[in-house]
Amino acid sequence: MAFALTAEQAAAVSNRGGGLLVSAAAGSGKTRVLVERLLARVADEGRDVDEFLIITYTRAAAAQLRARIAEGLGERLGRSPADRHLRRQAILIYKAQISTVHAFCAALLRECGHLLDLAPDFRLCEEGEARSLMLQTLNDVLDGRYEGLEAGSDFSLLVDTMSAGRDDSRLVDIVLDIFHRIQSHPHPSLWLAEQEAAFRPDGIADAGETVWGKLLLNHARRQADYWRDRMSHALELTALDSKLSGAYAPSLAGTIDALSAFSAATGESWNKAAACAAIPFPRLGQVRGDCEAPDAQERIKAIRNKCKKRMEKIAEFFRNSSKDLLEDMRAVYPAVRGLFALTKDFSAAYAAEKKRRGLLDFSDLEHFAVTLLAGEDGAPTDLARQWGSRYTEIMVDEFQDTNEVQNAIFTALSRNGSNLFLVGDVKQSIYRFRLADPTIFLSKYRTFRQIDEAAEGEDRYLILSQNFRSRPEVLDSVNFLFSNIMSTEFGELDYTKEHMLRPGGSFPEGSGYETELDVLDCSAPEKAEAGRTDKNLIEARFVAGRIRQLLSGELRVSDGEGGLRPVRMGDIAILLRSPGPVLQHYVRALTEQGLSWQAESAEDFFAATEVSVALSLLQIVDNPRQDVPLISALRSPVYGFTADRLAELRTGCDGDFYSALVRAAECGGQDCKAFLDELRQLRLGAGEKSSHQLIWHIYDRTHLLGIFGAMPGGEERRGNLLTLYELARRFEDAGHRGLFGFLAHLTRLRDSGVRLASAGKAGQAGGVSVMSIHRSKGLEFPVVFLCGLARRFNREDMQKPILFHPKLGVGPKGLDSERMVEYTTLPRMAVAKQLEAEMMAEELRLLYVAMTRAREKLILTHTIAQGAGDLRLLREDVDIPVEPQALSSCSCMGQWLLLAAMNRPEAGALRQAAGLWQDTSGGGFGKAWDIRLLSCAGLDCAPSKPEERAEVPAEGEGDDMLASCLAWSYPYAALAEVPSKLTATQLKGRFVDQEAAQEAKRPGPPAETLFHRPRFAAEELGLTAAQKGTALHLALQTMNFEKTDTSRAISEEIDRLVSRTLISPLQREAVDPNRLLAFFTSDLGRAVKASAKLRREFKFSLLVPASDYYPCAPREERVLLQGVIDCWFETLDGLTVLDFKTDRVTEKTVRKRAMEYRPQLAAYSRALEEITGKPVIRRVLWFFALDSAVEL
Prior knowledge:
Layout: H1 7-14, E1 20-24, H2 30-45, E2 52-56, H3 59-79, H4 84-92, E3 97-100, H5 101-112, E4 123-124, H6 127-147, H7 154-163, H8 169-181, H9 188-199, H10 211-237, H11 242-265, H12 270-276, H13 294-317, H14 322-357, E5 359-360, H15 362-373, H16 382-388, E6 393-396, H17 404-413, E7 420-424, H18 438-447, E8 449-450, E9 460-464, E10 466-467, H19 472-485, E11 502-503, E12 516-521, H20 535-554, E13 556-558, E14 564-566, E15 572-576, H21 583-592, E16 597-600, H22 609-622, H23 627-635, H24 643-650, H25 657-666, H26 670-683, H27 691-702, H28 704-709, H29 714-733, H30 739-751, E17 761-763, E18 768-772, H31 773-776, E19 781-786, E20 802-805, E21 809-812, E22 814-816, E23 821-823, H32 826-851, E24 854-864, H33 868-874, H34 884-888, H35 893-901, H36 908-914, E25 930-935, H37 959-966, E26 981-983, H38 992-996, H39 1015-1021, H40 1025-1038, H41 1047-1059, H42 1065-1070, H43 1073-1080, H44 1083-1090, E27 1093-1105, E28 1118-1130, E29 1135-1141, H45 1150-1156, H46 1158-1172, E30 1176-1183, E31 1188-1191
Parallel strand pairs: 1-7, 1-9, 2-3, 2-6, 4-5, 6-7, 8-9, 10-11, 12-24, 12-25, 15-18, 15-19, 16-18, 19-24, 26-28, 29-30
Antiparallel strand pairs: 13-14, 16-17, 20-21, 22-23, 27-28, 28-29, 30-31
Helix pairs in contact: 1-2, 2-3, 3-4, 5-15, 6-14, 7-14, 8-14, 9-14, 10-11, 10-13, 10-32, 11-12, 15-17, 19-35, 20-21, 22-23, 22-29, 25-26, 27-29, 33-36, 41-43
């Protein structure tokens, strides 16, 4: 290694005698410590490298770690080339167990899975396949439950409570969510049993005795104590003016006394706390005359108002008595019991289905490993001791992202933890949504002894706080902020002196590296709301302009050789909490400044053009008589058929499009002949090739990689095509075979909602990086812009129908079945409060991760929509350190930042705007910041480009230009022909080629106004043909299909419709029972009657890309597609769309007429598939004139 180890790092490398937890701060060299410790044990103690189990959390990290160890061995071997032991390690390194926890579990199960009756050739189930299988299994379980449904049963109450009278889609989501979350527990079924028992409130007299009541009472006490102190401060402010004291002091004192009483009551019982929860706020007296301390008066009122609002929210917890809350729990308990029973049944059914298919998912790997290695009491099994004896030490990297299952595995293998070496940083634990549990790390940190105090055999911890990544300016800003806002109460960890980052890197001297806080005032009172520019775009334009300033030479960064160089675009990263909604604004702003950018592509893999073309080619190789994929392939850049050419081929040719191609080739069409010849070559021997071999064969013959690689974004396009090849290879490796099976697998992935990220990055390599904070973890950049700090915290998880917490269990809503009104429960209130606290802690750690990505310059931007008003709302909570209760009431990261930063000497402009006079003479601020309050004037429009002087043309030279100007036409005139709404009926008669034609016009002329024949004329002349068709459709819409076995039964059913005034007597005469009998006795009619699910007159409205029907329309344009489907029904294979037609047709004309309805039925199918998520397998027209069906 290039640099010597620090004293802390050396201690982490050399310490022995017990389990060691290394809390390694950002940039402290934790990976180097792990590598050096392993190499020291190998070189100095004579250990073999394969005696160590090294676990990390991604395959890429495992590969990088193996490379670092191999490099270290190479350096030592270079110094001692004759060392036979080191030479042996250079070979063993490639056998060493350096892997993810899932790879280790898979190896364990392949070797010992027979003890659990697992086949050694099990196949790992991919995420998309697993989700599809879970949905299918859960639907089967629910179907079985519905078949045996009994009134008053747990399941019946569960459906009523969780579905709230609607369909069971919400119940499906709840079961899958709970099943997913309990996978982080070593024994999920045991967890369900324990939580079910805990939810039963038998033997409990006071709600405060429950785990949920205790949590809420503790929270209420902390709030009461905090606001008592704030109100005491307000009382002290009255001493500044005798008038204030006389008018305000009695009211404030009364409130303070009530807060003290409430705080004391929370330590006694729920009912006593509830009795004191309504805190009185007596009316403030009137201050007569001029107040000598107007600022104090305003601050007193602000404190009092905030206290009143906060305590009113606390009082909502105590609206119900202990008895009522316990009764509510008893009422909802059967539904919770039913939910847990349903989850158990689903878990068992899902496990059985996976076993039948020889599958294991990632959770199975961990849980089966725990079953082999540990008993239910956590004690290691004989097998665990046997496997543990193989390893001198078990090293775990990124330990802060461990869950309970993984921790149980490590503990069982590690001789009671004595040979565990754990490395991580809980301040960078940001994957709770992936079931990581930072409390495991925190528990060990709080129970282990410091390394210099631990006795032999005792577990110990060591903190690495020296940072080698960032300049002191960056580190000081991180230390200042987190020492003032991170605590055990708010953030789950006290950011004490031992956690503060200490500079360890060497940087050349320079200027301009101070941390920058730019507060953008976006208030614009003179503008109407509709005319305001999005504040995200304003912020993005400011950032882009600031980057342009830095690139102009304002900032120089280290060149890696001891000198400085100008900053480049590739040195800069813009970090956002969630780029998706605002990425467009940053792309726009950077482009306006002429800056290149790069960002992770947000495009869906399957929606990428090159993937669609490759899949279309695969589909027509499998079956060329598929119009949509065939036309997609022809229109692609590979074959280049124009829309006019496709229309020409289609004209006058019945049948599918493949038949049209064949006919054109026979008539001398060389382009069609060449395509069919190539398609024949692609299909030749396709059945003998595996899916990935066939894909590569197609790539090779069609030059697909070269064609799309030469287009803009070629690298990303090639990456997507190679990803498709890799998907096919993995599909084959999993034991599947066949092109049809692979295409069906991809369809299931899309149908189950799995989104595969497009390969590569959008934008241009070497540009400014725009990414999420999560994606930036593990990376570093010379300059970091941390933006979007005004984005509100996402509290949607607290609004779910049922909440989940790994320790507190579930938090359901109750349902008043008589009024169908949902109400909250005691467990739900407590779980929501705990989830909110943990969410805040996670957001705080995200802020830490983001700020520590910067090497040399950190720029923070925050927007305030109401200007100084937003700052004044914070001023009463400005303090160092900031009170945890104040932090918990904030709505965004930016407010945390402001509460601390407004105490700094450089924040004078912010304090002045807030009306705050704060003493900043104290120390502890570290290096200076650059804090600015900036107006957003000029940022609501794009920056103007430098003016260019127009050259005056000589005489005669401008004639061509003038002519071109006069001949100019509006380029978007065609868009005026695109309607905002389109009905499926309007599509009648539009062939696929017409829909694809570049000159496509509206679906048809406006419909003529139709005047219905008056009733007196209808009685004399009869119904028109259109009215007779309407009568038949109305009968089919309303009649009972179960009573259609005979003509007589049908007549009686029609008479019933007349008696109920569903159809008129005239309409009854127009409905021929024999025509209906012909339909119901046909194969199609019998299928309709036997179907599991049948819908008639199904109305839909769907937003679809306008370009699907009007190619002149841009991709982002949408049109509202509406329609009414006569009938659709579901079979085991999928959905069938059925449309009834009363057209006058003959055997000769029926096929041609049916083809006119093909676009209409295609629209119906599209809508059904998108609404139901199920495939439409048949499209059928029933012509009553011929009593026959035509399939399209």
